[in-house]
UniProtKB/TrEMBL annotation:
Domain named AAA+ ATPase: residues: 24-284
UniProt region (Disordered), positions on chain: 312-332, 484-503
Native source species: Gellertiella hungarica
Record-given protein name: AAA+ ATPase domain-containing protein
Domain of life: Bacteria
Gene3D superfamilies: P-loop containing nucleotide triphosphate hydrolases
Pfam families reported for this sequence: DUF87 (PF01935)
Length: 503
C-alpha cells in the first residue's frame, strides 16, 4: 500500500510528500545543529504517519511523551532492568502497539544500556511478529558515538551494537530506523551509512557541512548553504523523498514538547528587601529530604575477571599445607614465561577472531597451570599487551624511542583499534610494505576487509595518519608524528601465511 504523508512545503509551494512504504525499506537520517528544528521534524513525521504504521521512539529527554494523549502511544519508563525492557519490547512487537521509551533523568551510561536492551528486545522478536515498525532515535550520536567518550566501554559497545543491528539488519525484521543527530561527525559511520534518505538542516561546522554535502551528492562549494537555512528548513534527498536535493519547509504539528526553546521574558520588579528574601532560609528546607536518583552501576567485567583470577589464592590462604606458596621468580624469567604463554595462545589460527575477554580467561588459566607467581594481569593490561604482540614488533625495535612514541599515539584510539594502529606503525618504522586489508582485518579480529578500510579512514580523520597511493595503485600509510611511512603495499593481497602475530 503506497501512502504519502505531508511533511510540509517545497520551495514552489507544492506539498512535500514522504512515501512511508519506501521509508520502511530505505531508512532516514536527519541532521542539524541544536535549534534547527530536528525534533519538530520528527514530531511532524510521527504525527502524520501514526495512523499508518506502528511507531517506537527512543526519547532521551522525554519530549515525545505528549504523543500519548493525542495518538495513544504507550509511555515506557527507561528506569527498569534490562530484562524488563527486553520483555516489554518483545510484547510491543507482538501486540503492535506504538510506544515512547523515555530515558529522561537517567545517566548517559544507563540511557545507553536501556536503549540497547529495548532495541535488542525488538530485534530478537520471533519471526511471526516481524511487522513493520518505524523506530525513531533522537540524539542518535549519544547511542552510536563515533569515538569512545566518558561512558563505560561495555555500555558503548552494547548501545552501538544495537544501533548497528537496527540500521544494518533491521529491514528484514520490519524495523525501519529514523535517526536524528546534531553532528554527523559524532555519529558512527557504519550507522549513518545505512540510511538512503536524508533531511539536512542548519549546520555551521565545516566538517559537518562537507559530510552533509557529500551525502547529498552536492559540490563541496555548495556546502555553505547549510549555514543559511532557517529553523524548520531542510534539504531533502532519497527514494522516499526526492531523487534530487530539494529544500523543504516542515509544516505545523498538533502536539507540543514539554520543553521548548527559551524565550525572552521581562524581569520582575525587584522587591526592596531582596537580600532578606534570598538569604533567609525557609524553615521547611531543613525538614525536606534530599531526593537523589540512585545510580545503578553495573560491575565492570574487568573486576569480575580479576576476582576469578584471584579466587584460587583466596581459597588456598586458610590452608597453606594443601596449596603451598609459589616460589619467587626472577622478573626477567617471569616476563619470558608470560610472553611464551601469550605467544602460545596466539599461535592458534582462530585466536585472532576470538574476543579479548575469552583470550584473557584462557591466559589466566594457563598462567595458573604453569605456576607463574605474581599479581595476575588485569584485562586492560592484557588488551594492551595483546595489541603490542599482535603488531609483531621485535625486541630491538621495542626499545627504540620511535616505538615508545608510537605507543603513546596509540592511546588516542579506542582499545580495540590499538592493535591495528601499532601494526601499521611497526610497518612504517620498518619501512616494510603496507599491510593488506585482510591483514588489517585479522589484527582487529574480523574477516571484513570493508571494515579494515574504515579503520584507515578513522585514523586519517583523527589526524594520526595520511593514506595515499603510488602510481601503480599500491597503498602507503604515513605517520606525520613519527616522520615515517610504509613502503607501497597491495591492499587486495591475500592474508599473510604467517599471520599478524608471527610477522
Amino acid at each position: 500500500m503506497k501512502v504519502g504523508i505531508d511533511m510540509g512545503t517545497l520551495a514552489g509551494g507544492e506539498a512535500a510528500k514522504l512515501d512511508i512504504e519506501e521509508l520502511l525499506a530505505t531508512r532516514l537520517l536527519v541532521q542539524g545543529n541544536s535549534g534547527s528544528g530536528k525534533s519538530h521534524l520528527l514530531r511532524r513525521l510521527l504525527e502524520q504517519s501514526a495512523p499508518w504504521v506502528q511507531q517506537c521512539i527512543i526519547d532521551p529527554e522525554g519530549d515525545f511523551v505528549t504523543l500519548a494523549d493525542k495518538f495513544g502511544h504507550v509511555v515506557v519508563d527507561g528506569e527498569r532492568t534490562e530484562a524488563e525492557l527486553a520483555g516489554i519490547a518483545n510484547r510491543i512487537r507482538q501486540h503492535r502497539v506504538s510506544c515512547v521509551l523515555t530515558l529522561e533523568g537517567l545517566e548517559i551510561d544507563q540511557q545507553m544500556r536501556a536503549a540497547a536492551a529495548f532495541l535488542n528486545g525488538m530485534f530478537d522478536a520471533d519471526r511471526e511478529f516481524w511487522y513493520p515498525v518505524l523506530v525513531v532515535v533522537d540524539e542518535a550520536q549519544m547511542f552510536a558515538p563515533a569515538v569512545a567518550g566518558e561512558v563505560s566501554d561495555d555500555a558503548r559497545k552494547a548501545s552501538l551494537g544495537a544501533m548497528t543491528n537496527l540500521m544494518c539488519r533491521g529491514r528484514k525484521r520490519g524495523l525501519a530506523g529514523v535517526i536524528a543527530t546534531q553532528r554527523l561527525a559524532k555519529l558512527a559511520k557504519n550507522v549513518a551509512a545505512e540510511a538512503s534518505n536524508f533531511l539536512m538542516g542548519r549546520t555551521f561546522l565545516d566538517i559537518d557541512m562537507a559530510r552533509a554535502a557529500d551525502l547529498l551528492g552536492m559540490d563541496r562549494r555548495q556546502a555553505e548553504m547549510f549555514r543559511d537555512l532557517k529553523r524548520g528548513s531542510f534539504v531533502a534527498l532519497g527514494p522516499a523523498l526526492s531523487r534530487r536535493p530539494l529544500p523543504v519547509t516542515i509544516g505545523a504539528v498538533e502536539t507540543s514538547a514539554r520543553s521548548s526553546s527559551p524565550k525572552l521574558m521581562p524581569l520582575p520588579d525587584a522587591p526592596v528587601d531582596v537580600e532578606d528574601l534570598i538569604f533567609t532560609p525557609d524553615p521547611e528546607e531543613f525538614n525536606r529530604p534530599i531526593a537523589r536518583r540512585p545510580v545503578r552501576e553495573p560491575k565492570p567485567t574487568t573486576d569480575i575477571l580479576a576476582e576469578l583470577s584471584r579466587a584460587p589464592a583466596a581459597v588456598a590462604a586458610p590452608q597453606p599445607e594443601t596449596r603451598p606458596n609459589l616460589p619467587e621468580m626472577d622478573p626477567g624469567e617471569r616476563e619470558e614465561r608470560l610472553s611464551a604463554v601469550l605467544a602460545e595462545i596466539l599461535s592458534d589460527p582462530e585466536a585472532a577472531f576470538r574476543s579479548d575477554a575469552v583470550l584473557f580467561q584462557e591466559f589466566l588459566v594457563r598462567v595458573r597451570m604453569r605456576r607463574i607467581p605474581g599479581t595476575p594481569m588485569t584485562l586492560p593490561e592484557f588488551r594492551r599487551r595483546l595489541a603490542v604482540t599482535r603488531s609483531g614488533v621485535n625486541a630491538e625495535m621495542a626499545e627504540t624511542a620511535e616505538w615508545q612514541q608510537a605507543l603513546g599515539l596509540s592511546g588516542q584510539v579506542t582499545d580495540d583499534l590499538q592493535g591495528v594502529f601499532l601494526l601499521l606503525a611497526r610497518h612504517a618504522l620498518e619501512k616494510s610494505p603496507c599491510p593488506s586489508d585482510a591483514d588489517i582485518a585479522r589484527a582487529y579480529g574480523t574477516h571484513s576487509t570493508r571494515r579494515a578500510r574504515r579503520f584507515l579512514s578513522y585514523f586519517e580523520e583523527q589526524g594520526l595518519v595520511v593514506v595515499h597511493t603510488d602510481y601503480s595503485g599500491k597503498r602507503i600509510v604515513a605517520f606525520p608524528d613519527l616522520e615515517a611511512q610504509t613502503a607501497p603495499g597491495d591492499p587486495n593481497a591475500p592474508l599473510s601465511q604467517q599471520g599478524v602475530a608471527a610477522e
